[in-house]
Amino acid sequence: AAVLAAMSIIATSASADPMGCDDGEIVVKFSHVTNTDRHPKGIAATLLAERVNAEMDGTMCMEVFPNSTLYNDDQVLEAMLQGDVQLAAPSLSKFETFTKQFRIFDLPFMFSNMEAVDAFQGSETGVAMMDSMQRRGLQGLGFWHNGLKQFSANVPLVSPTDAEGLKFRVQTSDVLVAQMEALGASPQPMAFSEVYGALQTGVVDGQENTWSNIYGQKFFEVQDGTTETNHGVLDYLVVASVDWLDSLDADTRDQFMTIFTEVTAERNAAVGEVDANNRQAVLDAGGVIRELTPEQRAEWVTAMQPVWAQFLEDVGQENIDAAQAINA
Ligand code: LMR
């Protein structure tokens, strides 16, 4: 009974203050949209919170709200500017209303692999991109990796002509809309949390995402199969508001940023393994994966190549050249 009484006291105090923060601690809410289990963003966000809560106890208190439980990506940046959430990590495709610089990451077949993405983000150009939204009140803290995207649909996709006339869910990005139009498909921008239902009910026929998201959201269960195209990048920028960062005293900010930088390096280095594990998990769960021959893949490259010219002005030839030089 004593144990039960103690447990109910804990339960009561936990519901009164769900984050369990102590008085005087700086409360940090990190809102994101993916699952936490075996997902690159979920794992990194959880690790960040664990380290902050252990090493900055008494100063800072972080809670992660995954699975779109607090905000969708189309709401979270405004919520951040209102001070309702302190950290978020939307994919680079979701910053269109704040900056057009990240469009380079959405251009199909721009980067050959995640090592090239990492090198580009770490270059002077990539690092400067983290400051590109300061004027709008947002500061990038670091890029977090997810992986390369694959296409899935309710019919087999082998040739790009197989996508013609199908409806594909895309993230809210004009580049991704143009990419699907280049395939003769119909792009439907939609929040991540709605994709499984939309695939299941036939509101859309297909989607593009990484292995971690395809497994994490179980998209493969409601698709004919997934075609391993590796045609684009899905990566994140962890952001905070300029106002919130300015409100921290220098020591607190430095300690937080040291932990953040270490977590970023550790989890980005592990992303290849997480990606491969999720690909395997799709197979183990009975999902169909179609691999393309080099000739078949070249057809997809040709079909989507015109998209680069459409966004040349936003992205800059010099940045395309820099990305291509890293691939080589
Ligand atoms: C998506 O909307 O498909 C992704 O941006 C979700 C995510 O955060 O990985």
TrEMBL record:
It comes from the Bacteria. One of its GO terms (biological process) is transmembrane transport. It holds the Pfam family DctP. It is found in: Periplasm. Keywords: Periplasm, Signal, Transport. Residues 1-16 form the signal peptide. Its main location: periplasm. This is C4-dicarboxylate-binding protein DctP. It comes from Yoonia tamlensis. Belongs to the bacterial solute-binding protein 7 family. One of its GO terms (cellular component) is outer membrane-bounded periplasmic space. The keyword Signal applies. InterPro entries: DctP_fam, TRAP_DctP, TRAP_DctP_sf.
